[in-house]
Amino acid sequence: MRTEEEQVAAIKSWWKENGKSLVLTVAVVLAGVFGWKAWQQKQANDAEAASIIYQNLVQAVAVSVQQGAADDVTTANHLGQQLKNDYDGSEYAKLGSMLLARIAVDQKNYDAAMKELNWVLENEPSQEMTSVILMRKAQVYLAQGKPEEGLAELNKVSDEAFKAAALELSGDLQLAKGDKSAARKAYEQALLANSDSGSRQLLTIKLDDLAAEQEG
């Protein structure tokens, strides 16, 4: 067995050879830990800030929709752009862009609405949000009198949860095209896929209107 002096000498020798690298390793680990905590804190702060801006945006949009106030529209556009510029990776930025598209549609500024909806698609939305955006694009095309383009967007909607709504919108687009037979078929399929009583009632009205037109 080593004597106490030999053990001390061995420790000193090991520390001389490995001490610097050990200190460096500890420093790197600590820097990583504190860096991770700082990053987490920044993420939390950014999320809170984005949330506040988004809440203000929702309020501005609500007022602009109800009252049509130009100042509130300007405020909403400013807040939406701030979200996109400062927190572009957040869900709040995507939701904000969707609200800006809503305002643009209300103002019949369809090009601006398309720009906002396309921005969301370019920023990795969830599958559900993607389906919503595609359907809103189809609605904008319908408002523009471009049913073919709208149908092309609807063909990309694969989420089963939106099947009934997509079929109804497809019927609206087919009707805008002048293809009443295709519109009727889409409405009938939507009726079969839809369990919501209010939506079913509206679909029934649309089918009855089509039948009346064809009889007339």
- The rough form would be described as elongated
Q: Round the Cα radius of gyration to an integer and report it.
A: 29 Å
Major sheet: size, sense and barrel closure? none
Task: Please indicate the percent range of residues in DSSP E strands (runs of 2 or more).
Answer: under 5%
Given as residue ranges, the uncertain stretches (5+ residues, pLDDT < 50) are: none
**What is the H-and-E element order?**
HHHHHHHHH
Number of strands: 0
SSE class: mainly alpha
Average residue pLDDT = 84
Helical run tally = 9
Q: State the separation between the terminal residues, measured CA to CA.
A: 111 Å
**Percent of residues in helices:** over 70%
Family: Belongs to the YfgM family.
Subcellular location: Cell membrane
Membrane topology: Single-pass type II membrane protein
Domain Ancillary SecYEG translocon subunit/Cell division coordinator CpoB TPR: 12-211
Description:
There is one protein chain. The chain has helices at residues 4-67, 70-86, 91-106, 110-121, 127-143, 147-154, 163-177, 180-193, 197-215. The chain is mainly alpha-helical and 216 residues long. Helix 4 (110-121) packs antiparallel against helix 5 and helix 5 (127-143) runs antiparallel to helix 6 (147-154). The N and C termini lie far apart (111 Å).
